[in-house]
Amino acid sequence: MKIIVDDLCQEKRLDTYLAEYLQNFSRSKISNEIKKGSVLVNSKETKSSYTIKSGDVVEINIQENILKIEPENIPLDVIFEDENMAVINKPSGMLTHPTTIETSGTLVNALMYKYGENLSDINGEFRRGIIHRLDRNTSGLLMIAKNNQTHEYLVEKMKNREISKKYLAVVKGVIDENEFTINKPIGRNPNHPEKMGIVEVSEGGKESISEVKVLKRFKDATLIEVHLITGRTHQIRVHLSSIGHPVFNDTLYGFGKMKIKTEEQVLQSYKLAFPKPFSEEMLCFEIEPDNKIKKVLNFLEV
Fold first, then answer.
1. What are the beta bridge partners of residue 197?
2. 82 among known catalytic residues
3. Mean pLDDT calculated for residue range 66-95
4. Same domain membership, residue 172 and residue 230
5. Under the phi-then-psi rule, with left for phi > 0, alpha for psi from -120 to 50, and beta for the rest, what region is 65?
6. Where is the domain boundary, 160, 193, 224?
7. Picking from 48-52, 111-115, 173-177, 207-211, which range would have the lowest pLDDT averaged per residue?
8. Of residues 15, 135, 250, 290, which has the active-site annotation?
9. pLDDT-derived band of residue 278, with 50, 70 and 90 as boundaries?
10. Helix, strand, coil content of the chain in percent (nearest 5)
């Protein structure tokens, strides 16, 4: 089994990364297999503590107990598709790809049922077709690659910042500025491994830039558009929390409790623009606010 590490997975320990693929293997068992040379990174033996990087080629020579992902007949909201790719509107509450804990009900399970083998496999079975991802409770537009050539094409466009991703969010408090940029490095929170945080570059943080535009102000909330210049894990949620305006109902990053209940963060990927693979045409898509955003806006209007 060979996997090319992408930006979504980098900065993890090698043994942690492999735990997503090797079913019923303990961390110590995985570490032993790495020591035995059953796992190679860029054709070389390495240590369990090695921090994987984007572009690393990981070869797993342990055939038994590889976790298999099954296709599932789950309806998909397909916004666009051609022979090379698709744009999907992912609902809130759905994982983008499986984990060792949850192997069903994800977008990848649905994609495998609909497209079968016609999905890129650069990042392994867990991420068939996945170029970028959205958090479970973030809804909206995602690009899907049907082959490895398209996957590599779109990843390169993302690295060169030629793909525009814009989000709608409702945040706590009234933001006074109409437009501004948040430029703060993001890394793993050293005190809470399940969270990301503002971490200096010297301590492992990565450059992270979000452009914010106010769309509407309420008594104690603001509807905003966020344009991602970079695409770090939890970037919008971390950036907005860092300036004292956490995303509505985002309990992980400090929103707290509110009278109106939704599935965690009120955040939607609603605009997507990118070069159509292997052509000079630009594709642009925009969707309506989802039911979660509408519910909160209706509450705030009263």
1. 187
2. no
3. 93
4. yes
5. left
6. 160
7. 48-52
8. 135
9. very high
10. 20, 30, 50
